Description:
The protein is α+β, with helices and mostly antiparallel strands and 147 residues long.
Amino acid sequence: xxxxxxxxxxxxxxVGVVLSQPGFAKDKVYTWTDSKGVxxxxxxxxxxxxxxxxxxxxGHSDPTPAQIAASQPKPTPAPxxxxxxxxxAAALKDPERCAVAKENLALLNTVAxxxxxxxxxxxxxxxxxxxxxxxxxxxxxxxxxxE
Length: 147
């Protein structure tokens, strides 16, 4: 008795899986209630019974209002009119360049032996005058790029 019950359940599950596959899905599904009050579903209802056409879903839902709003292009506000010097200064703000300049300035302020390419492109030790010039240039970069 248990074995036949398990076989029936497995058969019902198998039919459900097979019918749920996209190739077996039909466009129209009807529902109706028989004389005993049991609800039935099928592609073709019996002729003598009042059946209701069901709306089926294919797995793709209609877009929600939020999805529609997100897909619409956003209006771009007109840029505020500002002083060109302020705009140029803001364009120069670069956190990465700022961080590199700060690291370079810290290195220039150490007693480490630093080298830089000379006029011939050969790496040569930096003199104290070279370090002073590099500090001045690096500080200008920091002033321009850091916020």
